[in-house]
Write a structure and sequence with these properties.
Number of helices: 18
CATH superfamily of the largest domain: Periplasmic binding protein-like II
CATH topology of the largest domain: D-Maltodextrin-Binding Protein, domain 2
Distance between the termini: 44 Å
Strand order of the largest sheet: 2-1-3-11
Low-confidence stretches: 1-37
CATH class of the largest domain: Alpha Beta
Number of strands: 12
Shape: globular
Radius of gyration: 21 Å
CATH architecture of the largest domain: 3-Layer(aba) Sandwich
Number of domains: 2
Strand content: 5-15%
Order of helices and strands: HHEHEHEHHHEEEHHEHHEHEEEHHHHEHH
Mean pLDDT: 91
Length: 450
Amino acid sequence: MNNISNKPRLTRAASFMAGSVAILLLAACGGGAGADAVSNSNAEAGNGSGPIKVWALDGQSAENAAIQKIVDDFTKTSGITVKMQFIPADSFQKTVETSAPEDLPDVLEVDGPVIANFAYNKRIAPLSQFLAADTIKNQTEAIKGQNTVGKDLYAVGMMNSGLAMWGNKKQLDAAGVTMPTKVQDAWTAKEFGEVLAKLAKTDPDGKPFGMGEANGLTSEYGIYAFAPIVWSAGTGILKDGKATGSLDSPQAVDATSTFASWRKYTDPDTNGTAFQSGKVALNWMGNWLYPAYKKALGDDLVVGPLPDFGQGAKTGSGTIAWSIGGYTKNGAAAGKLLDYLMSDKVVAQYTAANGAPPATKSALKASALYGKGGPLAFLASQLESACPTEDKLSKECVAVSRPITPGYPIITAEFGKALGAIWGGADASTSLQGAARAIDRNFSDNDNFR
């Protein structure tokens, strides 16, 4: 398992999510209850002996081999036969969305932002009747926030993700800049602008900042990485099911305008190596690049919070999780597999290999990377201070999941479009108002997903 990287699985999730907005929107027009009342389940327990069918993302060969080994070990210990099917990333989401719900497998991987949509369309089932209570209790609050729709848990996660500001201590010291290492000490947005100006004076091309621009602000990465800007400003993307008055609020306009003002200090980082190569002193990025950063910078690597736009520094969280098919006839056996996947031994092995934060409380606490005294304990502290959803924002909480709604596909599309325009110089108020209107119009066309 030593060759697994969690980055491909995360970026695959972003790419197929962004590419399937139209399909998801069409699917959302079907019947079913709204996001707050989708617990009526068609899943059946069966006799608990299987066999069960599993759909997983087709990733790197080492990653696939690791998942297959975990499942094979499960079969040896449980006696339950598992038929694994690895589906390529570029067709995985379409395969799930275009399959009739009753034709989906017993267990499948699901990207966090579409869990509410899949629950709404009965593609996945509530888990509490099939999983051990201790399995659910051991999930971190951050990952439960992503995986809960209404009052029901629809997925469980082996791993999570989070954002941070990464710094090159040698370059920061040369400019007289000290990186904050605690959320409560985060640079304010104004202070961060001043830091960039200071660093620019010692940077050869005056661009000391990286933020993954090449990943695409209009892609799924855009909302994952930069929704924390508006959350930190004290506003959600939605409030009471509407974007107007929230996404286009004065706080959001001011925060995104400030963010865009940093473009003059930003290296486009077209090949994704600006930070590792020393071209930039600061980089806004997720946990998945820690191995590359540590290898390149060694003891000069420092990590801290994103800027505080007025209501506390925030981070996005969430990633791929595991669900049970909405029409399974083998729910009890499927639940046993998920219990096994969420066990300390499996989660610890998997996340130790791919570098992701464990999504179970016990494995997170015991992690050499994220546990107390570990090099990434700061990221764990952010995830442990989970809001965990944008309707529960406060100045004190840090980790926030992307909006939990069946209408998420239009949200990510319109947020990304507005963010890209603002970054390119468009008026923030006009751009956010247009996005908010488009989101609300889509929700209205879908009867607000009731």
